[in-house]
Amino acid sequence: MKITIIGTGRLAYSLIPNLKNAGFDVLQLIGRSKEKVENYANIFHIPFFSTKIEELHIDTQVVILCVSDTSISEIAPFLAEKNKIIFHTSGSIDMEVLAAVGEDIGVLYPLQIFTTDKIVPLEEVPFFYQGKGKAVEIAKIIAEKLSHQSFLADSATRLKVHLGAVIACNFSNFLFRSAQEMLPENMSFNIYEALMREHIEKVFAFLPQNTQTGPAIRGDKTTIDKHLDLLENKPEMRDLYKQISHLINPDVI
Q1: How far is the C-alpha of 248 from the C-alpha of 218, rounded, in Å?
Q2: Statement: the pTM of the whole predicted model exceeds 0.85
Q3: In Å, what is the CA distance from 62 to each residue of 35, 59, 98?
Q4: Does domain 2-153 have CATH number 3.30.300.20?
Q5: Measuring CA to CA, which residue among 44, 46, 9 is closest to residue 29?
Q6: CA–CA dist 104, 47 (Å, integer)
Q7: In the CATH scheme, what is the code of domain 157-248?
Q8: Which of 78, 84, 80 is nearest to 99 (CA)?
Q9: Is residue 3 a contact partner of residue 62, using CB atoms and an 8 Å limit?
Q10: What is the residue extent of each domain of the chain?
Q11: If we measure between CA atoms, which residue out of 108, 119, 145, 132 comes closest to residue 43?
């Protein structure tokens, strides 16, 4: 299966070597930055590369868009009538955004965060796939070869999963950052590492509804009041503390 990747961001940096390791032929890379395209092509030994979608290689069978959500609809019209199977990789964008391309469209959404210049193994990363026409079976093949966890999921299901990912990962990172900002000067955020590792282990062993701890679940109003006093000069964080505490235990605030 000959694949062209469009995009040179963090996802592409991990997806390309994982595809190659799974036995797929990454034939071509297309991206806006000539420097990044050439760099990725050299790193991953991709024989054809370009900065123009119009130069899509004739032998390409599958095109995977590793681009921002807003770019998907902009790129799709350029792939119309190419007679290729086209996938996007977004969790929050409907598959039909690719409708201008034709019938053979789909989605390959890996539930993971990706880092610049770091190859993330995908074997344990959940893959959510969807397709129309020829893309259905191809999506299944690619997802199952890349990951031990693959799920057929429509756009509504993916959006729910994506929302959960934002709350669990992106929002929690904001809270980590807020916790760091509240530490005394010269104290490292690493003091929370053992605490957080223990918590994450318990969350996945016993599920979140069974692992809630802290003053709110205990109904410890004395500690909550002390915390709110400390947040007197941070009104937005103070309100957030109260709102989350109320959601954990409506009787406490």
Answers
A1: 10
A2: yes
A3: 24, 9, 14
A4: no
A5: 46
A6: 25
A7: 1.10.1040.20
A8: 80
A9: yes
A10: 2-153, 157-248
A11: 119
Contact 66, 7 (CB under 8 A): yes
Taken in order 120, 124, 128, 130, the sign of the CA dihedral is positive
Q: What is the pLDDT along the chain (253 residues), one digit of tens a residue?
A: 999 999 999 999 999 999 999 999 999 999 999 999 999 999 999 999 999 999 999 999 999 999 999 999 999 999 998 899 999 999 999 999 999 999 999 999 999 999 989 999 999 999 999 999 999 999 999 999 999 999 999 999 999 999 999 999 999 999 999 999 999 999 999 999 999 999 999 999 999 999 999 999 999 999 999 999 999 999 999 999 999 999 999 999 9
Three-state DSSP at 98 gives helix
